Amino acid sequence: MLEIAHDRVLEFLHPLPVSEIWGVGPKTNEELQRLGLRTVADLANTPRNTLIRALGEATGSSLYELAWGRDYRDVVVDEPEKSISAAETFAYDLENEEEILRELLRLCEKATYRARQSEYKAHTISIKVRFSDFTTISRSKTLPLPIHGIQETYAVAKQLFIALKLGGARIRLIGVALENLVDSEGSVEQLVLGERETGWREAEAAIDQAIARFGKGSIRPARLVEGEDKDDSQDS
Q1: 3-state secondary structure of 136
Q2: 157, 173, 163, 158: which is closest to 124 by C-alpha?
Q3: Domain 6-67 in CATH: superfamily?
Q4: Could you tell me if 96 and 130 are in contact, meaning their C-beta atoms sit under 8 angstroms apart?
Q5: Per-residue pLDDT tens for 103-135?
Q6: What is the pTM of this model?
Q7: How far is CA 115 from each of CA 44, 51, 99, 111, 153, rounded to the nearest angstrom?
């Protein structure tokens, strides 16, 4: 969680691309780009009436206010979660696919742990990829039955990423989201033909128990541990 001091809100907001503002979807972003409005600062320094003429009364007014860090909507504290996500902005751009997939697994681990703790499963798995030039794309897949396991979520996320065929693209950020959430209790489980009677679900239940007792990071997929060992050896 990142807390921005009141006197630094605009300093934080204005360099961001307009696509980062809540409510800016692909179509609105396309219209803003057509108008030459690429950053939040560009949006903030455009007259409100100009935005209203281009985007309509509701959208134009809302985006103008948000660009100046003003949001007059009521805070709702007990609204059910609509999605559970995890994202990482890297200290340097990633190009190696193996390294990117390891980070993708790490994010799946974070998001699915939160989903299981909240007793949710997801029908839709989404990924978000941001490149070094801040261009952002997203892809999603909706499943017939909901999931919340690390490995099954990672399998979907990996499939989505591989299908992008990015080659050696330089990646600044990657994210995973679990969407279309349903309560775990009473939901139908996806069974795999030939699956062993005990497997990933039992392993993940044991992992959750270990984390509850010993804390986060006490037990995790071997691939992530191996990756950390390599990083440590490079630093030493």
Answers
A1: strand
A2: 157
A3: 5' to 3' exonuclease, C-terminal subdomain (1.10.150.20)
A4: no
A5: 999 999 999 989 988 889 999 999 999 998 888
A6: 0.55
A7: 36, 39, 25, 6, 11
